Amino acid sequence: MRDNDKQRSLPQAEADGIIEGRNAVIEALRSGETIDKIYLAKGETDKTLGHIASRAREKGIVVVEADRRKLDGMSRTHAHQGVIALAAMREYVSVQSLLDAAAEKGEAPLLVVCDEISDPHNLGAILRTAECAGAHGVIIPMRRSAGLTAIVGKTSAGAVSYIPVARVSNLPATLEELKKKGVWVYGTAAEGTTSLYDADLKGPAAIVIGSEGSGMGRLVREKCDFLVSIPMKGHISSLNASAAAAILLYEAVRRRM
């Protein structure tokens, strides 16, 4: 790679929220920049990478070990030095703040819970629909999930600036806490025993959308008060995660009008 090609790649990398190289990541951590996730080269345990990992964990940042091929594929500069950080478009909030926002508006909480939605385009589309539908917030897990990266921000068409997102370490425990606070949990499942049009989405509701491949995890599924099925009239038996979210959200909107 020629030096001028490398320099040309830097502005685009910055625009995409990709921070590469040890000094750049250390400076981002020092300056307080909101970081979504840090990828470290698997098997490398030198002092600098260890310092980056410990500083990140102190700040509650997800640290993921990745093989060199993954890092090489993510890199725009081809000089990542074994570490790449993804900047977050905005800070995460607490789950309680989502409930407080609904209370301030005098509305029953309407939340979207994403169970391991790893495709950033799907998460961005869900954020966009949630914002348009007037949801009070979105909840995602810290691990095995897309975060508020630049790709998600672009896909959300700007919704990431308006819809608050909480990120939690234990999704089943979070659902249990929501239930204790009077929120009903509705999980989407093809084999659900409650039809979408029989689900009472007028009251406090958290709509759980499962991952693109395997749907909701077992522990998350067990925390749902209702498993809701969307009527399927065609030959294909499942919907894209963001499409399923849109259907349930706007049924909730219709019930609340």
TrEMBL record:
InterPro entries: Alpha/beta_knot_MTases, Ribosomal_eL30-like_sf, rRNA_MeTrfase_TrmH, SpoU_MeTrfase, SpoU_subst-bd, tRNA_m1G_MTases_N. The keyword Transferase applies. Gene3D superfamilies: 3.30.1330.30, 3.40.1280.10. Keywords: Methyltransferase, Plasmid, Transferase. GO terms for molecular function: RNA binding; RNA methyltransferase activity. NCBIfam families: rRNA_methyl_3 (TIGR00186). It comes from Vescimonas fastidiosa. Residues 18-93 form the RNA 2-O ribose methyltransferase substrate binding domain. One of its GO terms (cellular component) is cytosol. This is 23S rRNA (Guanosine(2251)-2'-O)-methyltransferase RlmB. GO terms for biological process: methylation; RNA processing. Belongs to the class IV-like SAM-binding methyltransferase superfamily. RNA methyltransferase TrmH family.
